[in-house]
Specification:
single chain; Purple Acid Phosphatase, chain A, domain 2; six-stranded mixed beta sheet; five-stranded mixed beta sheet; 10 helices
Length: 293
């Protein structure tokens, strides 16, 4: 036998080793942060994450509404820069709105509903005043100067989706259940499609964007606040003063949550898990039993 040839036995051993590696490897997914830096730091401290093997995925919407947007962006940027293979941040619709405002594509970011005024105030130390066309131009120039250039470039380079052995990760959802590579950027950033929430059976898809209390009642796990129906997994558990910031661990389906008052919660989900992930769990458990002492 040539040195490069693999016998059936060695191929089987390779597959077994890959399965064990998957068992040891986890993916931690953090929902929409929206400037809640204290909660972000709190949830990251909770994670039993091995930085050399485990992935950390942020679903986007780092900015707007919360009390410390610059702190959130700087921390996530630092994590991504120091370990780009294992830390991934997706672009959210709020980052897109900010970029569109800077690029003069539209003005949605500065409407009151987005919370962009909070981001503006935190970076510029000035209130957002928009009464005339000149005010819009001045606001655009000022925020462009006050947000560090590396942060704006970071927003521009954020991917729209990520995928690993466990799941697909997007900010908002999928277009007609299609793979994100076949979905429009607008759908990945903005969709609120009932058919996706209620009738998606493909590879498990973890998404944020729509607070879970606004998703279909059937699928909402009241005790934990996340949404889990068929293969759609929503983890944006809201951003009001009582809402937790949520991180989901795969494939074990452990939830880590932090609240504004500093309290934390950890829960293991055992029901409604998509069949593909259940099968991974079963195989991993069997491989774990076979590991040498």
């Amino acid at each position: 036998m040539e040195c490069g040839d693999l016998s059936p036995l060695s191929q089987s051993a390779d597959k077994s080793a890959h399965s064990i590696f998957l068992f040891l490897m986890k993916t931690f997914i953090v929902g929409d942060i929206h400037g809640r830096c204290a909660q972000l730091l709190g949830v990251l401290d909770m994670l039993p994450r091995e930085e050399s093997t485990d992935k950390l995925v942020f679903l986007g919407d780092l900015i707007d509404r919360g009390p410390d947007v610059p702190g959130c962006v700087e921390h996530v940027l630092s994590l991504c820069s120091s370990n780009p293979e294992k830390v991934i941040c997706l672009r959210g619709n709020h980052e897109q709105m900010l970029l569109d405002f800077l690029d003069e594509a539209n003005m949605i970011w500065v409407t009151s509903a987005t919370g962009g005024d909070q981001t503006f105030r935190q970076y510029t130390q000035k209130p957002l005043v928009l009464r005339t066309e000149a005010h819009f131009d001045a606001a655009r120039d000022l925020i462009a100067k006050k947000i560090p250039a590396e942060q704006i470039e970071f927003f521009r380079q954020l991917p729209l989706y990520h995928e690993d052995d466990y799941a697909i990760y997007v900010h908002a959802g999928l277009e007609n259940g299609k793979h994100p590579s076949e979905s429009s950027p607008h759908a990945l950033l903005w969709t609120r499609d009932l058919d996706f929430y209620k009738s998606y059976y493909g590879k498990p898809c973890v998404f944020g964007h729509t607070p879970t209390q606004l998703l279909p009642w059937r699928g909402r796990l009241g005790r934990h606040g996340i949404y889990l129906f068929n293969s759609a997994i929503g983890i944006d558990t809201g951003n009001n003063p009582h809402s937790p910031l949520t991180c989901l661990s795969l494939p074990d389906f452990t939830l880590y949550q932090t609240f504004a008052d500093g309290t934390t919660a950890t829960n293991q989900i055992t029901a409604l898990i998509p069949e593909t992930l259940k099968e991974m769990q079963r195989k991993a458990a069997l491989q774990g039993q076979d590991l040498p002492d």
